[in-house]
Structures are given as structure tokens and as C-alpha cells.
Specification:
Length: 95
């Protein structure tokens, strides 16, 4: 797929990007190359390929889900400007 300078300018406008006029041709060439690569990749037969979460077949190391800090809620609420029923009160920002 080949993008024109007008296509690049329209994409830049929609994305609210400022592109120098002398760079438009290079962007058109680079973006066209990326789109061509995606088209070629979509044509690859992946019927017998199992989906993977990661290209390396490794188990993810997870830490134990245990409490490591003491509950300081009371101490933090004492210094808060406004608290009610254990909740922090904040100014209304949306009408």
C-alpha cells in the first residue's frame, strides 16, 4: 500500500502532529513500508500456531500475595483536610 503526501498530511492533521514539509515524503515512504509489512504478515498461515503470551516459553515469577506493611489508614486520615465515615472528602470537580 502506497501512501501519498496528502495521506500523510491528513493523518498528521487527525493526530494533531506537526510535520515539516520536507519530511512528508520520508514519512510517506516509512508508513507505506510498515503497512506493506502488516499486509504481508496478515497473509501468513497461522492455523496451526498456538497463541503465546510471550515468545520465551517461561513461567512468570510471581511474588507471594501477602501483606508487607502495617495499616496506617488512621494516621493518614488524621492529617487529611476532610474525612467522613473513613473516606477522604475532595472538592467536586465535575458538575
Amino acid at each position: 500500500m502506497s501512501l501519498t503526501a496528502d495521506d500523510v498530511n491528513k493523518i498528521a492533521h487527525l493526530a494533531r502532529l506537526g510535520i515539516d514539509k520536507q519530511d512528508v515524503g520520508a514519512y510517506a515512504n516509512d508508513l507505506s513500508g510498515m503497512l506493506d509489512l502488516m499486509i504481508r504478515m496478515s497473509e501468513v498461515n497461522t492455523d496451526h500456531v498456538e497463541p503465546m503470551a510471550h515468545p520465551m516459553d517461561q513461567a512468570q515469577r510471581l511474588r507471594a500475595d501477602e501483606v508487607t506493611e502495617i495499616n496506617q489508614r488512621e494516621a493518614f486520615q488524621v492529617i487529611a483536610p476532610q474525612v467522613e465515615a473513613g473516606l477522604y472528602l475532595v472538592p467536586k470537580v465535575i458538575e
